[in-house]
Amino acid sequence: MNLLTAQLPGRAPRSGKGLTLGIWRCMLVAFVLVLSLGFTQVAVAQADPDREMSSAAPGITAEQWRQVRSGETGPNFRDSRHESTYNLINASGETWRILRNRWVSPFGLIAIIGMAAVITLFYVIVGRKQLDEPRTGRKLFRWSLFMRSLHWTVATLFITLALTGLNLLYGKFVFRSLFGDAFWGWMISASKVLHNYLGPIFGILLIVLLISLLKDNIPKKQDWVWFKKAGGLTGKHHPDAGFANGGEKAWYWLLATVGLVVVASGFVLDFPNFNQSRDTMQWANIIHAVGALGLTAVALGHIYIGTVGTEGSLEAMTTGYVDETWAKEHHNLWYEEVKDQAITEEELAARKSGDSSGDISASRPS
């Protein structure tokens, strides 16, 4: 059953366009609410700019660290929460700080900048991957309006979370020195609120997206050949590919594994009211940062290939249709299944003008 045309008994069917508009309206309302929370927190923080300095703790001495490690700390160093056995000054916190500052942060930055540099160098040397044959002007349906809306919503949330996360991790080294404490205070507060509130929404929609795409991303034998030929970068011919090629499947399973680990660790950090220990929160933070930085680096490659890197790829996720030549060259096995369904640009224009949800009613073979 088509997800967009399903309806409850006795209820009029709702068009795909109306459903998509409803999804975008809900997302817009949620975004406005989250943004308002950010401005509220900023206003509270700016009302008392000296609050942080007045509550800052003095430096910890070597003797105090010795007492913490030996268990000799008194009640002044204890967590005040009920039945807490943690020290406010604790060795595990120092271990977390070292891991985060000496390993995760620098190597994460190296991975992202390195990936961006490799992509730029590749584009300068190789350039855009053009179609080998001229376009035929005949179109094949590839993505429904619902799937395109879901994809762009998840992508927008991913980029927002990546930018706010990078700001939380590295922003103070750039923006604080450039714009001063006032702007930096607003920026970091807004980033924190957006990251914390949009994260769970991203997690839920990512699961919906993964479930929707599972059938097309089951690994097959031709995927190994696709990787051996570097997706067509080596050799004279494009490697065989079905609806999803080897690279797309790799990105899917990276999101289905590392992505879900990042989501799960984010939930642990976002909702610290389920009796998580401090050690659990610290490890969740390290896992979340490592996974998110790795995904961000790989996502740069996915974004490049799907936009400026390959001719015709972006059209699939903007219009829902691809040119026959593009399908034949990049997804030849899928093309053989659906080539009889190709329509001309005139037929496509007539279909869209006659039915505002025209591409939603189309379907592709299983």
TrEMBL record:
GO cellular component: formate dehydrogenase complex; plasma membrane
Regions that span the bilayer: 21-44, 103-125, 145-167, 197-214, 250-271, 283-305
Biased composition (Polar residues): 355-366
InterPro entries, A to Z: Cyt_b561_bac/Ni-Hgenase, Di-haem_cyt_TM, FDH_cytochrome_b556_subunit, Formate_DH_gsu
Keyword RNA-binding attributed: no
Stored SUPFAM superfamilies: Transmembrane di-heme cytochromes (SSF81342)
GO BP terms in the entry: anaerobic respiration; formate oxidation; respiratory electron transport chain
Cofactor: heme
The family this protein is said to belong to: Belongs to the formate dehydrogenase gamma subunit family.
Protein name per Swiss-Prot or TrEMBL: Formate dehydrogenase subunit gamma
Species per Swiss-Prot/TrEMBL record: Vreelandella nigrificans
Lineage: Bacteria, Pseudomonadati, Pseudomonadota, Gammaproteobacteria, Oceanospirillales
